[in-house]
Amino acid sequence: MKRLSKLEAILWSIAFPGFPQLLSGNYLKGVLLVTLEFIINVNSNFNQAIMYSFLWEIDQAFMVINYQWLMFYPCVYMFSMWDAYRSTLDDSIKGRYLPFVFGAYFVTVGLMLSPKIRLFDISLGPVFLPMAFLIPGLLIGFLLRAGLKNSS
């Protein structure tokens, strides 16, 4: 099995969940993650929502998105990143999963709140608001992980 660097594993996972697993020779897990990403993406109309969001047609993004399917995406996405990152490490850092878990949780909450939250009377929609919610999720995860490190 090929070992990827931490940066390479994270960047490939951001590009497409499951790619780092395929690159490192973990084919079963890689195919499963790519398949899950594809099924969730297609059924949630996520690419269409991303396109509308980047064109700043937020109302169109809300109209095409299927929340029932998209709610699965943050967990699959963050698990793929965590698994890719974890496979690059030899040591056992306590709580290294926490930023990924809290990132997935906060993105999911941001997705649920996206139809309701408006900043300065502007809706960030079902793509940009969940992305913004990733930041506090990661910060809380890193803080909790640091607390676990210091307590041992």
Descriptive report:
The protein is mostly helical and 152 residues long. It has one domain (6-151). 72% of the residues lie in helices and 3% in strands. The chain contains 9 helices and 2 strands, in the order ααααααααββα. The chain has helices at residues 6-15, 19-23, 27-44, 46-54, 58-64, 67-70, 73-86, 98-113, 125-151, and strands spanning 118-119, 122-123. The protein has a two-stranded antiparallel ribbon. α3 (27-44) runs antiparallel to α7, α4 packs antiparallel against α5 and α8 runs antiparallel to α9 (125-151). It starts with 5 loop residues before the first helix and ends with a helix. 35% of the residues are buried.
Shape designation: flat
Which structural category fits the helices and strands?
mainly alpha
SSE topology string: HHHHHHHHEEH
Total count of domains: 1
Helix content: over 70%
Keywords: Membrane, Transmembrane, Transmembrane helix
Transmembrane segments: 61-85, 97-115, 127-148
Task: Describe what is shown at a glance.
This protein has nine helices and two strands.
Features:
152 residues, mainly alpha, two-stranded antiparallel ribbon, 2 strands
Topology:
Blueprint: H1 6-15, H2 19-23, H3 27-44, H4 46-54, H5 58-64, H6 67-70, H7 73-86, H8 98-113, E1 118-119, E2 122-123, H9 125-151
Antiparallel strand pairs: 1-2
Helix pairs in contact: 1-7, 3-7, 4-5, 7-8, 8-9
Transmembrane segments: 61-85, 97-115, 127-148
Keywords: Membrane, Transmembrane, Transmembrane helix
